[in-house]
Amino acid sequence: MTPVSDLTLESLHSTATSIFTGALAGCNIETAFDRRIKVDGHVLRRLMADGSGPEQIDLNAFKRVYVIALGKAAGPMLDVLLSRIKRRKGMRGICCSNQLPSKRNLRFRYFEGGHPLPNVESFHAARAALALLKKARKDTIVFFLISGGGSALFDLPLDQEIGLEDTRTFHQVLVASGAPIGEINILRKHFSAVKGGRLAFAAPEATKVSFLLPDVPLRSLDALSSGPTAPDHSTVEDVRAILGRYDMASKLPVKVREFFEREDMPESPGNKSWKPPFLPRLAEAVLARRIAAAATMKDEDHAFRDSVFEILLSSHDLVENARALAEKAGYTVAVDNSCDDWDYADAAKYLLQHFNTLRAAHPRLCLISAGEVTVTMDRTPGAGGRNQQFALACAIELDRFSGPLTIFSAGTDGIDGNTRSAGAIADPTTVARARAFGFDPEKSLAEFNACPLFTSLGDAVVTGHTGHNLRDLRLLISGIPEKSI
After folding, report:
1. What is the pTM of this model?
2. CB-based contacts of 210, cutoff 8 Å, min separation 6
3. Which CATH number fits domain 29-311: 3.40.190.10, 3.30.750.24, 3.30.70.100, 3.40.50.10180?
């Protein structure tokens, strides 16, 4: 392998970091909102209506305006909405994120939920939202501001006998299972009282507008925060097949396993065969009314028929911003998102091979890959996350490569797994430098403990909370840039 100067590697690290931070900065929530929605006085106009719901909404037609903001970008999304809708009378809401804002609106209740595992505030936020939505009538419009991370930040078991610790264990089993996010969210939807369309169904008569900031593929928008306002097409049979496929049942707490094994386990709201809902604590008269209502749970139902869905930003915007910045630096750019939901090791080998093939023809190259890889854990993890795991797997393979190159992988929310890092940067010297510091890279990889290694090398990516969550961004860069960004 031809030696590469420290100055060259430093330049590559800096370039990769600048592309990532610049691409994320270009995904401005306020600008995105204004591309989709315009508020003229009391009239909300959809500038890019897709056929779902009305093209304009008269806010004066509603006595109450409720807002439910959940996910890692809940605070910034709420701030933008409130800056556009000046009305205050009849407005109330809930905001649940992983960081409390410094400034708060007195009409809202704020909750700091847990991530990657729910906490007591996650439960409190879900209960508060359900209580608020219970008051919604035909004279109510509800704005749902939904971003990634809500699956853990905002949760409440459908079975009231399942407590917080069992819920946390359930989430931990899901994260460690190696199942793709779509299948994980099918289980979450059927487990939760506020996912899989149940949050929307809590206010069946209200007009509902969902603004989405997805950290999932656009073909799977109902997986965003496990689809609290979207009709769910997965079934109980799907749930049981997934539990069996990944051998999860034996790892679940007893009460959670018993819930999934119930003969009367309910279907989530959506267009599918109806089964009796799981509502054991309701009085008989109330239960009868709820069963009658649930019998019509399908997409055409009023609970979903009057819903509006607007996508503000997605990983597509992130990739296009990164492409523009890489081209500005003089790189030939290729985009490959095909390893989305792949095992991290498989994704590392595939992208490195593709990268090496492409750079033979284009020595100055930036390969961009968005989406999320999966990690299957067979033990209690150390400190790390999927991005650092991917970067370390790449570092171990880089002894086969030559020339100036670097690998960058980070989460746009600023958090990777159970660490305060967003991700990490690797290059052909990573393994040698790590060994010099007393680390065993293969052992760190096997123990899911990559963060201490990258932190010691100064190669951890640390951004702090970004107020965003547009999936992960991976950059494989070869050749020094022609110009700085």
Report:
1. 0.84
2. 143, 144, 145, 146, 229, 230, 307, 308, 309, 310
3. 3.40.50.10180
